[in-house]
Amino acid sequence: MAKRSVPLLKQLLSSSAAVSSSCSSRFTSHRSVTYMPRPGDGSPRAVTLIPGDGIGPLVTGAVEQVMEAMHAPVYFERYDVHGDMPKVPQEVIDSIKKNKVCLKGGLATPMGGGVSSLNVQLRKQLDLYASLVNCFNLPGLPTRHENVDIVVIRENTEGEYAGLEHEVVPGVVESLKVITKFCSERIAKYAFEYAYLNNRRKVTAVHKANIMKLADGLFLESCREVATKYPGIKYNEIIVDNCCMQLVSKPEQFDVMVTPNLYGNLVANTAAGIAGGTGVMPGGNVGADHAVFEQGASAGNVGNEKVTEQKKANPVALLLSSAMMLRHLQFPSFADRLETAVKHVIFEGKHRTKDLGGNSTTQEVVDAVIATLD
């Protein structure tokens, strides 16, 4: 008798779960955003805009159009900055310090010649110590791997990017890699805090401490100390070369990754390539007081001349980055609307740029996103 009742019990439980799920789905689909703004939070916010080089003006222009179509409570203060400038103009720095938030296209970095990257200058001057890139599968966009949802959090102010190089004697150049406990601890704290606040379950520290025992060893030591304060989050470590191999073979094993500066750039671009390409990966740089949002993965971030001339740059990465910006500004419903519209256009597959297997122009993608906004 007991054995015959088991299938019935399972059926009843299954039916109950289905009803519960249906009710839950019906309820949540009509539930409003549980966000209580402070009085005055709905006032339009000023955002510093740097169109940048190459495809930058195209994709930042796309964001401007979508923001206007949504009637998003932001307005832009535009500044023309280019990668061949000796430094970021002071008026631009002052604007970002005043507005606290900036949206930027890519700035070209000259190869060699002793000219420093304005991207790096900006991060240092504003102490944007954390770079975040979210690499994830977009529904409808075919990739070799599924279930990829990786957040790469990279220390942004020191390491090999410190730019401390000099020629010791003719033909011999010394480049210094600087790692400090202060910077290592704060990026580790940011990574664990991000994981905790975003319901992430694991943080992986990427390193090369088997060779750079002091520098990367200090980074690892800092990560380990911070990890003890977050017992609910799993912590592990991986050597950077093994990390790259694991990324291309089994990327779904990674959740949040915390890295020194150079490794983070390599890992983020590798993860972006796996999840759908640099054209669809959002990102931002954040410090205690300021934030700059831009295309997440930097490879080819200014595009090639042909793409610019044909006006076929992919605006998806910067549109998703601007959704991150809206959430940062505490306009979550606008961020949700924008993300939903972009993902719908990708899923539908009718309007895609060449890097995603289509032949659409930037404007055609923008028009499709605007038409999809609910």
TrEMBL record:
GO biological process: isocitrate metabolic process; tricarboxylic acid cycle
SUPFAM superfamilies with a match to the protein in the record: Isocitrate/Isopropylmalate dehydrogenase-like (SSF53659)
Domain Isopropylmalate dehydrogenase-like: 46-369
GO molecular function, one term: metal ion binding
Record Pfam families: Iso_dh (PF00180)
Main location: mitochondrion
GO CC terms, sorted: mitochondrion
SMART domains: Iso_dh (SM01329)
Localization per record: Mitochondrion
Keyword Transport: no
Entry superkingdom: Eukaryota
Annotated TM spans: none
Keywords linked to the UniProt accession: Magnesium, Manganese, Metal-binding, Mitochondrion, NAD, Oxidoreductase, Transit peptide, Tricarboxylic acid cycle
Similarity field: Belongs to the isocitrate and isopropylmalate dehydrogenases family.
Function, in words: Performs an essential role in the oxidative function of the citric acid cycle.
Protein name: Isopropylmalate dehydrogenase-like domain-containing protein
